Amino acid sequence: MISIITPTYNRAVLVQTTIRSILNQTYKDWELIIVDDGSSDNTEDAIQPFLADERVKYIKKHNSGQADSLNTGGLHATGDFITFLDSDDEAYPHWLQTVHDHIKEDTGILCVGAMRKYPNGTLTREGMNEFRFFGKTIYLKFTCGSLFIRRFIFNDIKGYDATLRSNIQTDLGYRLLSWLRHSPLKTVVVNDYLVQINVHEGERIRTNWGRRREGGIQFIKKHYGFIYENDKKEIANIYSTIAYSSYKLKQRNESVKYLFKAIRHNPVRWVNYMRVLKYAFL
């Protein structure tokens, strides 16, 4: 069985599309665990009709954030593999069947591609991201809907880090890779685009500059040694992201400070020198 965990908060209309995309899966051995993070709208009423299918489960709790909701779902999951699907996204009908067909006895995690749909209807493909770890280049994708994990591994690494303000998926991915490094279990990549990320006008962490800045600082403090050992240029990328978030928050001094950190770790990335002028004066 595959367990799908969907956290939701005040998305009464959007979550119905997500649920229907699971009910329309060609692969039938699944459970959907919807974790309501204390919604104040009619999310519970919107979900109620779908509970007639015993594979759909609903948990309502006090508001404590996305990471805690994902972990709550993980505690209630019973499948051999778990995955996470946001309540504003949807899965294509062959999503789970394709994943199931690629799972082997020695599969630890499995990643699939995604489509991103913008409000104007434009669709773009999102394949694997490149990582440089343990002396080799690997291609994986840790975002919701794209990552499938053996449940016992998720439990063993203690799930998502609920103290982080952002970057929870990359943080989970780094800890998964560290765990798998000492395991005979393998990573599997399926280069098919099987889920759709729907971009809308609602609140998203991607544009919450305060959370992105704070989460980036937390993330680099937590993983600096690990990243420095494996890919110093990635440290520069993270500092650049913190700098940009600070700039969007009109914190010019902070934005320049983090840009200089980025330059120190990757001095040949010339665009950051231009950004210093922009962030300081424009």
CATH class of the largest domain: Alpha Beta
What is the count of DSSP helices, taking H or I runs of 4+ residues?
10
The count of domains is 2
Structural class by helix and strand composition = alpha/beta
Q: Give the assembly state of these chains.
A: single chain
Write down the CATH topology of the largest domain.
Spore Coat Polysaccharide Biosynthesis Protein SpsA, Chain A
Helical proportion? 40-55%
Low-confidence runs (pLDDT<50, min 5 residues)?
A: none
The end-to-end span amounts to 54 Å
Second-tier CATH architecture of the largest domain? Alpha-Beta Complex
Mean pLDDT: 95
Domain Glycosyltransferase 2-like: 3-136
Keywords: Transferase
InterPro entries: Glyco_trans_2-like (IPR001173), Glycosyltransf_2 (IPR050834), Nucleotide-diphossugar_trans (IPR029044)
Protein name: Glycosyltransferase family 2 protein
Q: What does this protein structure show overall?
A:
It comes from Paraflavitalea soli. The protein has 282 residues and is an alpha/beta fold. The chain folds into 2 domains: 2-206, Spore Coat Polysaccharide Biosynthesis Protein SpsA, Chain A (Alpha-Beta Complex), CATH 3.90.550.10; 208-281, Serine Threonine Protein Phosphatase 5, Tetratricopeptide repeat (Alpha Horseshoe). Helices cover 42% and strands 24% of the residues. It is built from 10 helices and 11 strands. It has helices at 14-23, 43-47, 66-76, 95-102, 151-156, 168-181, 209-230, 232-248, 252-265, 271-281; strands spanning 2-8, 30-36, 56-60, 81-84, 90-91, 107-117, 123-126, 129-133, 136-140, 147-150, 186-198. Helix 7 runs antiparallel to helix 8 (232-248), helix 8 packs antiparallel against helix 9 and helix 9 (252-265) packs antiparallel against helix 10. The termini are far apart. The model has no long low-confidence stretch (mean pLDDT 95).
